[in-house]
Every structure is written in structure tokens, then in C-alpha cells.
Amino acid sequence: MQLNPSLNAAALALLGLSQASAAADAVPGWTFEGATLIYSEADGRVQAAEPRFRATRNWDSGRSLSMGLTLDALTGASPNGAAPASTPQTFTTPSGNGSYTIAAGETPLDDTFRDTRVALDASLSTPLGRRNTLTTTLFASNEYDYLSIGAGATIARDFNLRNTTVSFGVNVEQDRIEPVGGAPQPLSRMPAEGEPRASREASVSKTVIDVLASFTQVLSPVSLVTLTASLSKSDGYLSDPYKLLSVVGADGEPLRYVYEGRPDTRLKQALYGEYKRFVYDRDAWTISLRLMSDDWGVFSQTVDTTYRWNFGARDHLEPHLRYYRQSEADFYRAALFDGEENQIGEASADPRLGAFDAITVGLKYGHTTRGGLPWWVRLEGYTQLGRSAGVPAEAADGLAKFDLEPELTAVLFTTGFRFGR
Amino acid sequence: MNPLRLTAMTLALALVSGCVTVQPWQRGTLAREDMQPGGEPALAAFDDHTYFSKEASSGGRGFGGGGCGCN
Amino acid sequence: MRAWLLLASALFTTTTTTAAMAADRPPAALQAILRAAEGRPVYVDFWASWCVPCALSFPWLNSVRHRYGGELVVVGVNVDQHRADADRFLMRHPAEFMLLFDPAGEIAAHYQLQGMPSAVLLDADGDVIWQHSGFRKDEIPEYEAAIRSALK
Q: Where is the signal peptide (chain B) (predicted)?
């Protein structure tokens, strides 16, 4: 058995993961990690490259400091929310100075979208006495229309010869959004290119507060379980300023387009359980279940499992399977019927708020060099299968000829390495 | 009390009271890198970010904030 | 709310740890060492291949063995389940002190260790005069003070 190259309590805490003391102590010194995700959606949709770097210093005293840098470059088209139509459709770009046209029968995609995000984080973990660990984190993330800063603290306490760990965490995030062309009025009509526009707010903001309580229990010398309950409260501007809805007649054809509008608060609650077991004195099996619901009417279930087959002393293969199912938000609408936009306060056709199932299938290969430096590659496929929801009854027959629940298919390639001391 | 919370509570109690105490010298397997809860931190971070951007749910095992304009 | 209190009390009751220094007669393997020590105190260190601070403690244990070897016996008790893991560790972290192998944890259980590594200092009669768990470089003076007082 090899010593762990790094057990990165601070990095885990950044995610708010309980750094259970099932974890062994980290090796004092520096550890460096690099990893990259290449994300590619089918049919020329979103393409992303996301490199991450992390440097972690562990001290003899049990204190650790971790600093991370994430870059995220995105290009490609994503659905703008409008429904397909029998004739070509023209949309004004968010700035109001341009337009793009979508062929008849196609799902409208906005390909003017291009973005680079830079994110920094720092996290400090300090033992308080022999049984408690306090972790504080700071992070900031910036893209051209979005700035997010946040801070969090997590305290973990060991009980029962470190067989039980309980942790509590709080995280506060403040975001400022400066949408291209300003933030449109919810459910207001999309103006034509060059048409004078109502004045818009140039800058909007939102606040997110997360709290979580986590409990890890060692069940036997080869198994453990983690249970986490969390609450997340968002306040402020929660809409996507670039998303539209089609307003259609009884024939299902668009009369005009309106900007989406979501509620300005959201309360999410989640329960997460993870079970891990070492099997055949060689392999590690993990299964997790997550239930999430919010006051927008979304309910979701996630099952995730991996089996790490340590087929050699320094090699492993790890198949991964994930199944996800969500119901649509109460205000999710595939399209609005003529006049409906004046009677309701909230509506969104963002496919992410619709009803769908998603499946991820992946395989990871990992190797540890003779010198003890690990690296890995992972290839995954991700598919979303939409279920019909939010179709206005008055236009249901007219819309029936269109594919309102398009599939999303993506390939994810991830690679990473670590070296240290 | 709602049924979900009751289930979680019962489960937690059963876990605490019903399991054997693993002694400090019996933790060789639990100290393995592949037995740490949460798995590989870099992969967990990528996964959280990807699913946050593509689905209505986030968080669960950790904070679900996101810190980006991708949702 | 009441249920959470119940949960909390369950946590705390399973937490009550038994007192550390419960040894009356040392396990047979250590008795042999005590006899061979001929009146010298015995410093017993429990270690495992998977324990990070254990690796850090080895250079210090070697130096204790060299500095106090005439008046003190140093024994490293390995608690790995598989001997091969211990042997691989010893290639990278050579031990210049006596070794015992306790794969079933019998000696470790006798002293009710609270963590890894753990150290137990026995006087010539085999009674525990000092016990400690964990290893940190900044606590070395504390460990050496315990050794010196045992040598008086």
C-alpha cells in the first residue's frame, strides 16, 4: 500500500464536501494538480475547454492552504428558448444591433454566444484542538457580463475514535450581472433589430446563501456512508437575460417573442447520501443518491455509481453510470399562447427548467507512476431526453408538428495529474 | 415532521447505534485514496460545474452556488 | 427538533471513550522484550504503512534509538494486516530499532490506542508511565521529556 500523495481537505471543503476524517492525514509539503475538461455538444452546439490548476500546502500541524485557478472558454450555440416554426425565424441579438435567422423547423439556437471565465479560489483549513477542523474559503469568478464573489466556512468535528464526523457549513455568494444590452423587462416583447428599446437596467445582482449539515459514519473497516442535507436560498435577478419564449397563435406559429421572467427568489433543498465499500480486498465501489426539490416546482432524483477496478498495483479502470430525472418548473412553458404574456408574471422556456431524463456513461483510466505520481483520463457521454411539458392547450395541435423536446448529447473528456512534495 | 426527514433521521440513528467501532489501527483500507468520500476532487468540481450548467439541480454533496452566469 | 436532539445524544453516548491506560500485564510478546531489556524502560511505537505521520516519525525514532540506546529499548509495533505492505514501507523508511508484527491488533487493543501512530512508554515492570497518540515535529520536546523522566 502506498502513502496517499495528497488528501486535499481544503480542496474538498471548497466544494463544501465534508472532509471526513476517514481521510488519513496529508503528507506535509506542496502538492500541485492540473486537470482539463473538454466538453463538446453534438451538432455544433456548446464547446468548452476548462483547465484547472491547484496548489496545496500541507503543514505538519495539520493546517492546509489550497489555491485554485480555473479558466473556462466557451463557444457555440445554445437554445434561445423560442419554439421551432414552419417559416424561417429572425431574432435580434442581445445588443440590439444585429440579428440571426433560423431555418424552418429547426430549434432556434443563439450562436452569438462566446465567453471566457476566470475563477480564483483560496481555502484555509485549520485544526482546532484534536477533533475539530475549521475551513474558510474565498472565491471570485469573472466573465465579461458576470462577476461572482463569495466566502464560506465549514466546521467539522470527529467523534467516536474518528468513526463519526459531523460538519456544518455556510457559504454566501454575491453576483453582479451586466447583461449585453441590459436586463430586459420580464415577458416584454423582443424588439426588432434597430428598433428603439425601452430603457433597461444595465446592472442587476443576486445573492445566494447555502447552508449544509453533513454526517459521515465509518460502518466497518471497509465501508462508510455520508449523509448531507442542504438548503440554498437565492434572491435577486434569477432570470437568464438572453432567453426568449415564442408567443404563438392556435396554429402554433410565432406571432412575436418575449423575454423570459423567473421568480426573484428560489429556495432549494437537497438530501444526499453516499455509500462507499472496498470489495474483493482490491476495488472501491461507490453509490450515491440525491433528492432535490425547490419552490419553483422542480423535483429531481440522481443516482450515481462508480466501480474502481484496481487491476494492477498502480492501474485502475473505473466505469461510471449516472441517471438523473427532473420535473419541470411550475412556470416552464414550451411557448405562450397569444395574449398569455399579459396575464402571467413568470414564464421560461429554458430547456434546463423543463422535464427531462439524463444519462451519463463514462470510463476512467488511472495510473500511478513508479515515483508515486498519479494521472488519469476519463471519457464520458451525456444525453438529455426531454419529456413534453408546458405546452399551451390552445396551441397544442398547432405545436404538435414540431419537436419541442430536443435531445442534448455531449461528449466529455477529462484528464488530470498530480505531483508533490 | 415530513416523511423524508423522518427517514433520514431513522437512518442516521441506525447507523450511529448499529455499527462496530473501527479501531485506529484498523483503518488501513479507509486511509486509501480511493476510499475518501467525494472521490477525486478535480473530477467532482468538473462534474458539479457541468451539471450546474445543464440541469435545474445543483449541490447536494456540497454547496450548490455555482459562481457563474451559466444558469 | 426533538429527533435531532435524540440524534445528537446518540452521537455523544457512543463517543465516551474508555480510559487509555488500562494495562495490567503487558501482552506476551512485550513481556519477552521487557525481560530482555534487563531493567531498562521500553518505548513502544505503533505504526502502519498507510499512516502518514508514522513515516515522519521514523527518523526521530532512529535518533532516539541512537541517543538513548544504552538506557532505553525502542520497539516498533507494526499493525498492517498484510506483512508485504509493512516490508515495502520499511524499504523506503528504514527502521534502526526492534520490530514486532501485530497484524491482528492484539497488542494495539491491549493499550486501547486512540490514534495512529501511538506511543506507550513502559517502565521495567511493564507499567505504562506515559501514553500518546499522533506525531508532530513541534511536539518532539514533549516526547523527549517523557523519555528523560523515565530514565531518571
A: 1-22
Residue A13 main-chain phi, psi, to 5 deg: -65, -30
Mean pLDDT of the region C47-58:
94
Q: What ipTM was assigned to the predicted interfaces of this complex? A: 0.91
**Using 50, 70 and 90 to split pLDDT, how confident is the model at B40?**
confident
Helix (H, G, I), strand (E, B) or coil at C60: helix
- Residue A420: which of A356, A345, A369 has the closest Cα? A369
Beta bridge partners of A205: A176
What's the pTM?
0.88
Choose among C6, C46, C48: nearest Cβ to B13: C6
Query: Taking a C-beta distance cutoff of 8 angstroms, is the pair C117, C133 a contact?
Result: yes
Backbone angles phi, psi at A2, to 5 degrees: -100, 155
CA distances from C79 to A299, B27, C51, C83, C106 (A): 48, 10, 10, 9, 9
| C147 or A9: which leads in pLDDT | C147
> Could you tell me the residue ranges of all domains in chain C?
24-151
Query: Which domains are present in chain A?
Result: 9-420 (2.40.160)
pLDDT reading at B59 higher than 90: no
Closest partner residue to C114 (CB to CB) among B17, B24, B31 is B24
Written as nine digits, the cell of A173 is: 455568494
The residue ranking higher by pLDDT, A347 or C37, is A347
Q: Which three cell numbers stand for residue A180?
A: 449585453
Q: What is the pLDDT of residues A303-332, one digit of tens each?
A: 999 999 999 989 999 999 999 999 999 999
- Phi then psi for residue C46, to 5 deg, are -95, 130
Separation of alpha carbons A300 and A294, rounded Å: 9
Interface test with chain C among B23, B25, B30, by most C beta carbons within 10 Å: B25
In the prediction, which pLDDT does C69 show? 83
Length in residues, chain C: 152
User: Chains A and C: how many Cβ contacts under 8 Å?
Assistant: 43
DSSP secondary-structure letter at C77?
Answer: E
- The H or E element containing residue C119 is strand C118-122
Chain C contact set for B17 (CB, 8 A): 10, 14
Mean pLDDT of chain A: 91
C24-151 under CATH 3.40.30.10, yes or no: yes
CB C45: neighbour CB atoms within 10 A? 26
A contact residues 118-147, partner B, Cβ 8 Å cutoff:
119, 139, 141, 143, 145-146
> What's the burial of A199, exposed, middle or buried (CB within 10 Å: 0-12/13-18/19+)?
exposed
